[in-house]
Design brief:
Layout (H helix, E strand, L loop, with lengths): L2 H18 L1 H21 L11 H31 L2 H6 L5 H31 L7 H25 L9 H15 L11 H7 L3 H13 L15 H22 L9
Helix pairs in contact: 1-5, 2-3, 2-5, 3-5, 3-6, 3-7, 3-9, 6-9, 6-10, 9-10
């Protein structure tokens, strides 16, 4: 079997396992959709000083939230559970190359993320009259922001999977981190209106930059003046997300564990 075929087969298996897990489907795939319905129904006003609907602003945060949910949060919970059950240890003893395991995870994350984004866009346009990007340049920006953000969060999810000591403790370790980042990164609230300290902390991590990059796609150019820096900072967004891709890869290589500490 060729390397590509092996990666695809492993990816299909990962998708099947994901869909068979009710918890994964609910918290990784359905949760952003539920939040979109709830908050979209509440946010019926326009942002102060602008003519931008809050739902138009909110959809950018929910897409970024969906990306981190199906990548970072999903992997950081799934992998410790598989490690705790001895799945990773057994895979080490098979002829399957180690890279195929990670290729399968990446394939699964990419496929679920595409479905998540499409569902969010359909929901936003049908229920809340959100306007989609009108130019090829904006769609290109949407593509590279999504790609870099998804890559960074996937690598960080694999790396963070080594933090939880057991599979049972993984949700308790990972979920608060993801939720805090969402609240301080401009997902549920206008980022510029958050306390300065929260802004400074959020600016360290990829989610803030994903949400900001996506705002440049779905919101008018003039809205960029209301951002903290006075613009969407797309160049800086690319640099920060790219840097996190490198950091995530280094952390994966140096910290990933195939067995639990009790296994030696």
């Amino acid at each position: 079997m060729s390397s590509t075929s092996l990666a695809l087969q492993r990816g299909k298996l990962e998708i099947k396992q994901f869909l068979r897990s009710r918890e994964s489907v609910v918290f990784s795939l359905a949760f952003p959709l539920m939040m979109m319905v709830i908050f979209g129904s509440i946010f019926t006003f326009t942002i102060d000083g602008t003519d931008v609907k809050m739902t138009q602003y909110f959809v950018t945060g929910m897409i970024a939230s969906g990306i981190i949910s199906v990548s970072f949060q999903s992997l950081a919970i799934q992998i410790p559970i598989e490690r705790d059950r001895g799945v990773l240890k057994r895979l080490q003893g098979t002829p399957m190359p180690k890279w195929a395991y990670f290729a399968g995870k990446i394939f699964m994350v990419a496929a679920i993320a595409v479905v998540e984004i499409i569902l969010l866009l359909i929901l936003a346009t049908l229920m809340f009259d959100v306007d989609l990007p009108q130019t090829g340049q904006k769609w290109f920006t949407f593509a590279w922001v999504t790609f870099l953000g998804l890559t960074a969060c996937t690598l960080l999810g694999i790396a963070f999977s080594s933090v939880a000591r057991t599979g049972r403790s993984a949700p308790a370790v990972v979920t608060p981190v993801a939720l805090v980042l969402q609240f301080i990164s401009g997902v549920y609230f206008v980022y510029a209106a958050l306390p300065h300290v929260m802004q400074q902390v959020a600016a360290i991590f990829p989610l803030k930059w994903m949400a900001q990059g996506l705002r440049s796609v779905f919101l008018p150019e003039s809205f960029g003046q209301t951002e903290v820096a006075g613009s969407y900072e797309l160049g800086k967004t690319a640099l920060v997300l790219g840097a996190w891709c490198v950091i995530g890869l280094i952390l994966c290589i140096t910290t990933f564990r195939w067995t639990t500490k009790r296994d030696g």
